[in-house]
Amino acid sequence: MKRVLIVIGHPYWSRSVANKGIVESLGGLDRNIVFSNIKELYPEGDIDVDAEQKKLLDADVVVFQFPIMWFGAPSLMHKYMEEVFTYGFAYGKGGDNLKGKQFIVSFTAGAPEDAYSATGAEGYTMDDIDMSALRSYRIEFEHRNPDHVWNADEDLAFLKNMGGYAIDRNTGKGWLTAAGLLMFGKGLSARERFDNIRMNYIDESNLLPGSRWSDRLTYDGMWENNLYNFIRQVTPRLVAGLKRPFRLEGMVRVDDTPVHKSIREAVTNMAIHADYLITGILKIVKTEKGFVFSNPGTLKLPLSAIYEGGYSVARNPRIQTMFRMIGYGDNIGSGFPAILSAWGEESWRKPDLSQSEELHQVELKLWMISLMPPECTEYLQKLFGLAYAHLDNETQIILGTAYLENGVTNARMQSIINRDSTKIGHMLADLVEQQMLIADKKGRWTSYRLNESYEIQPEQFEFKDIHHEEVMLQNETDLRIYEYIKVNGFITTQQVVELTRITTAQGANAALGRMMKQNLIRKVRRGKHFIYELK
Predict the structure, then answer these.
(1) 10 Å Cβ neighbour count for 51?
(2) Is residue 456 in some structural domain?
């Protein structure tokens, strides 16, 4: 009887339904079936290549069982293939060990049938496009790429070239792609097709007594809920108030700083790496201590590779291209190292990129506070007394991280103090033994928090070095317009309507005219359109 090896490449086996059902139904059929569940066998990702190759050699039939994720095999399955099917074993000189074996690919699709059509959003046409967003995007595109041949295209042809529209070669029918609908779709259409996804921005800085937020952007019927509108409205709010040192390139003032670029990079990464086929929220929170960006999905690269840079595996390459063509998103593989560099220059805490496989969520925290601010040290000294003074510097940093970030993990400390996981594990265990930290175990993962037995409330950090430029503006509307232009380079009358409480083009022109009289901005023709930029 033939010996069968079933290689299971489901990255979230505990939540599997279809794949687990298939495997369980086969389990009692024949003892000649061997299962190799990659995620269960190697939870840390260190595949035993020799053991897996031996299983392949012993088998007559090899079955690859996995769920389709974004129109292909999951990264776990790719990792297995890359590490186990090596040169000299599976191919190349002497690589004929698998010759004559039967290979079967068995996969499940956890999405409706239309999600795997040639176009991705079948039934959604140009009527489902928010033309205001598309026109605004095209103005930015032309501004960034004035000589590009696509500037002369009609809207449908432009979208097709950008990957936002596709035609089924078999039927000749054309529809919006998932990227096109997510990026430029009308709110109702986008929510209908992607009712599992929401976008939310919350500003928790500068709170008034009794308030939970000082500003918020959510689904309130005041804007078309697509990615372009969300990111273009949120980005100016994120950088509002950040200091901009006076710097000239030739005779032109340059307001863009590495910090501003890094925040745009973080926003863009959230959008292009999100998994839009699962339930989740693209969420941005602005606090007194920095920013938190989160999106549904998981990392497609190991954390070490992301921190190192030079690699790029965007989950949504079409959306990535759309943003890059208007100046959002760095060169491939260099975005996150650029964020690390910018934060390092400011001597702020190292950015914290993490993922929760349980929640199926990726989170990036950009802290705008130093490694050990004075109030952090003062709090820990009051909490632990002389015992704190007797700790070495690295151990104090662990406690400081637990205080500043409301908890700490082994992985997080590896990125901060550059010690291996074993050493940090001993340091954390010692702090638990000294009752300075409390361990919270969740499955295979453990997080640690301060033992605040003294019940002293931490002081709130204040951005003392961050303030608005001293520009005399008459009202909040003008300030928002001014901040938007500083971030994006220019603004249009339509964007003023979308950004502010102004509801008509006439009102937008009045506001812009008022700012021109103050000699703050000027009106410039770009191609077929007028834009407004800083003087």
Answers:
(1) 12
(2) no
Flag whether 184 is in a domain: yes
Q: At what angle do helices 227-239 and 317-324 cross, to 10 degrees?
A: 50
Amino acid letter, residue 306: I
Helix ranges (DSSP H) in 61-219: 75-84, 131-144, 155-162, 178-184, 187-193
Stretch (H or E) spanning 260: helix 258-272
Q: Is the pLDDT of residue 431 over 80?
A: yes
Sign of the alpha-carbon dihedral angle for 272, 496, 249, 351 = negative
Question: Residue 21 burial by CB count (10 A; 0-12/13-18/19+): exposed, middle or buried?
Answer: exposed
Cα distance between residue 242 and residue 261, in whole Å: 12
**Token couple for 327:** 């100046």
Q: Using 50, 70 and 90 to split pLDDT, how confident is the model at 269?
A: very high
Cβ count within 10 A of residue 242: 19
Q: Which two tokens stand for residue 36?
A: 């190799």
Q: Please report the pLDDT score of residue 128 as a whole number.
A: 96
Q: Find the mean pLDDT for residues 489-517.
A: 87
* 222 and 334 both lie in a single domain: yes
Task: Tell me the three state secondary structure of residue 71.
Answer: coil
Mean pLDDT score of the chain: 84
Domain stops at, among 110, 131, 149: 110
pLDDT at 320 (0 to 100): 92
* pLDDT on residue 459: 40
Q: Collapse the DSSP code of 428 into the 3-class scheme (helix H, G, I; strand E, B; otherwise coil) and give the result.
A: helix
Residue found under tokens 């506070």: 369
Domain that holds residue 61: 4-110
71 shares a domain with 8: yes
Per-residue confidence band for 118, with pLDDT thresholds at 50, 70 and 90: very low
Residue 55 tokens read as: 């299983």
Pair (427, 505) in one structural domain: no
Q: What is the DSSP letter of 208?
A: P
8 close to 42: Cβ distance less than 8 angstroms: no
Rounded CA gap, 343 and 262, in Å?
A: 9
Per-residue burial over 498-510, b if 16 or more Cβ lie within 10 Å, else e, is bbbebeeeebbbe
Q: What is the pLDDT of residues 455-485, one digit of tens each?
A: 543 443 343 333 444 566 768 888 888 877 8
- Tell me the CATH number at 390: 1.10.10.10
Q: Calculate the dihedral angle through the C-alpha atoms of 44, 446, 411, 390, rounding to the nearest 10 degrees.
A: -140
Looking at 63, 87, 110, the residue that finishes a domain is 110
Give the whole-angstrom CA distance, residue 177 versus residue 175. 6
